[in-house]
Amino acid sequence: MDILTNHIGYSAAGPKKAVIKCREEERAEAFSVLDLKGNKIYTGVPVLVGPVANWNTGIYYRADFSQITLEGTYRIQVGEHYSQEFEISKCLVTMRMLNAVSYYFKAQRSSGEWLVDDKSLPFKGPREGEVDAHGGWYDATGDYGIHFSHLSHSAYHNPQQIPFSAYTFFKAHDFLTESKNEQYSMLKRRMLDEGFFGADFVMRMRAPSGSFFRSINRSDALASVEGTRRIGFEYKRSSDQFSDVAETAGEEMIGDENYEVSLRSGGGLAIAALAIAGRNYYPSGEHTQKEYIQAAKSAWTYLSENNERYVNDGKWNLVDEYCALMAVTELYITTKEYDYLQKARQMAKKIYARTTPTGSGLKRLEVTKEVPYYHAADEGMPVVALLQYAEIEPEDGRKAEAVKYAEDIMRWKLMVTDNRSNPFGYPVLESKEGNQIVEKFFFPHSSTAAPWWQGDNARIASIAAASMELSYVTADETLGVRCRRMAQDTLDWIMGLNPFDSCMIEGYGRNNIQYFFKNRYDFINCPGGIVNGITSAPADEEGIAFVQHPTSEINDNWRWAEQWIPHGSWFIYATALKKE
Question: Which Gene3D superfamilies match (predicted)?
Fold first, then answer.
């Protein structure tokens, strides 16, 4: 029997659970929460959930002890079995984790030989010229490239990378300010420092066209850096990420658009980051507030008129729309120009139109007819975008409409999550396979991004952010409570409450996974960074996997163990949003 808890601890006022993992012959009939002196503080009856899908990891019980609000250090007892010690505190868990993950970003700042090379970068391929593109954060443990986004050939799976990270630090500063907790004074300054570091990089990546350059390509993993880095391009119909040559390389002509971003491939969040930079001040910022604002406005004007030229399929989709909504919402907050409010209303309506009534009376968010929306990194972003818009909408009816659609999307997400045997409360997704819509715990292996698939920590942290944000504004008290539970369930998973008893944040908790590449450990993970996480089994999408050691089939465990900045960005957003 294993008693699984959040390794870092629990917020005193928030939901609290443990999960008891048993062998078939074991039973968990009662549990007690003990203080360090062995006193029973709380006793309860765990709820039997049973086995999960094809995980083959045992039978599970869920033990809720949310009633405990007294700060202290505790452990859980079930019969003769005990959990590891854990902490309950008012805000220390939030402070420690924001501190840890923000220091990870500082450690990921481009520096040394990479910084020197990036001050004068040529282009990969036929484009001529050079760009001063120094700065930014390295993308991942084994990828010292710096990217606004990638996977553009997939249409619906562009992750928001560098610009969203910059945006997140500004938003985290706002959330910590709203908490009115004076103990965040140093954290708030560091949030602005990182935010402006990111915003200044975004400014350097502006392209003459009015868009932004998308990516600094890494050199070969172990190659010399000098002279090997380039401003990269993407093909529109295939990717060379997993092969020497993209499938459509011989068919596609590379033009300037291939080097630059659409709204969905980082442009929308770049505009949002610059707009929010324009209403803040920190001494490290390299530009005036007016310059950040003007850059955001100019980029919006250009990309809103030319987005179709940059996307792989020549048309707007849901990802463009929610990224655009984030952009114009921040532009309206900063400038108070009515045109941006009108544009926000238009984008919100486009998102509303992508919800489809179902037989259950709830609505599913879809990317196209009968194709559900799911995303490896940003699944919660449509709800976040709608709620950010609702906050600035002056008309009560329109504000209520935006909140209602956010509620509809989250109610559906909660329903499919609760449909499964699910002791951890892990957010379930829906995908289209053939003519069927199927429910899955983890990102599918056969999406339009294939063969790319990896752990879901950014995806579930984005859902934590959406859930937490909705809990503040919904008038449905039951929904608000359920959303707060969903948010905590996902953060618990990242902080160690999962079947592998592994904290996903390097240097914290227990059983941190390490990244190996061709059976080498050159690319060691950085303290405070968050790894990709747990996936379905390679040969069974109803199974579960977390490859911690080399096997005969796997000599590179990037899908599970590599750190990636979107995980950290969404974790910071969701954690700061607690406003403790």
Answer: 1.50.10.10, Immunoglobulins (2.60.40.10)
